[in-house]
Amino acid sequence: MAQFIVRNLEDDVKARLKRRAARHEHSMEEEVRQILRNAVQEDDRPPPKLGSRIAARFAGIGLTEDLPELRGQTVRPVDFEP
Predict the structure, then answer these.
(1) What sign does the dihedral 73-78-81-82 (CA atoms) show?
(2) Quick check: pTM over 0.70?
(3) Hey, where are the domains in the chain?
């Protein structure tokens, strides 16, 4: 098993970590392990693509159309003049 030391951790962070560990009925060390496991687990998933994120954001208000992919298209400045 690997070990590492965290230096220069602020006192308030340590205190909050200790309270969080107590709420979960863990030692502080186990709480840190859980936090690290969860953080690494999230990194394994590829981030959703922009179209999927937009569709998810507007799904609750009735967006039913497929969003076109913009990959490879030329970026054009917006013209706000009438």
Answers:
(1) positive
(2) no
(3) 9-66
